[in-house]
Amino acid sequence: MEHKIQSLSPNTEAPPKRHLKNYLLDPAFQLKYTGMVVLVTVVVASILGFFTYRFSVGQTQSLTMTLVSNTSDLDPAALRSIEADAARADREVLFKIIGGIGVLVLSLGLAGIYITHKMVGPAYKLRLLLKEVRQGHLTVGGRLRKGDELQDVFLAFERMVISLRKRQQEEVDQLTAVIDRARKADAPKDVIDDLQAVRDRMLSQLT
Fold first, then answer.
1. What whole-number distance in Å separates Cα of residue 193 and Cα of residue 188?
2. From 118, 129, 153, 200, which residue has the greatest number of CB atoms within 10 Å?
3. Is residue 164 packed enough to be buried (19+ CB in 10 Å), middle (13-18) or exposed (0-12)?
4. Where are the domains of the chain?
5. Measured CA angle at 112 (ends 111, 115), to 5 deg
6. Side-chain-side CA neighbours of residue 73 (13 Å)
7. Terminal CA-to-CA distance of the chain, rounded, Å?
8. Structural contact between residues 67 and 79, judged by C-beta atoms closer than 8 angstroms
9. Taking 50 as the threshold, does the pLDDT of residue 207 lie above it?
10. Are 75 and 30 in contact (CB under 8 A)?
11. Which of 122, 135, 202, 129 has its CA nearest to residue 160?
């Protein structure tokens, strides 16, 4: 009896819709890696923002002092108005710096989760497939997505499974031939039944 080896062709079904939680397959690693990147970015951006704000305040004070010194008959109300406008301009600069850092942190956080998912996702899938092989199921369900990392590792794993399937298929065919010879030689039924049970168990690992 001849049994064909199951094809390991890629899954052609439409990919499922993904949510943010689906990208956190290994939260401990992904959040740690992303957090480190975000922390370094916040520190550097805060330092640069601090010096930018100080420069802006210095420029505002210099312009205010120049305006006041060039206007000899400036009344107190007008002076307070100029100082208020200068303070408001400095606050706007500060809010824009803080807002920019916030947008940068959010963007890097999402990008970090997405990038680590490209590494963790394939590793997670390979762990599941290795578990299947360990349990005796010599199959590969689908392939990695385009753009995922570890493509070479997955290809090597797929070739290994194909080799194991081919070897087991040959053993199944040999065992089938032995069963046929045993029947022709009028071997005891319990012996033939045991051989068939072993063959069927090996054959089930190929489906």
1. 9
2. 129
3. middle
4. 22-135, 137-207
5. 85
6. 0
7. 16
8. no
9. yes
10. no
11. 129
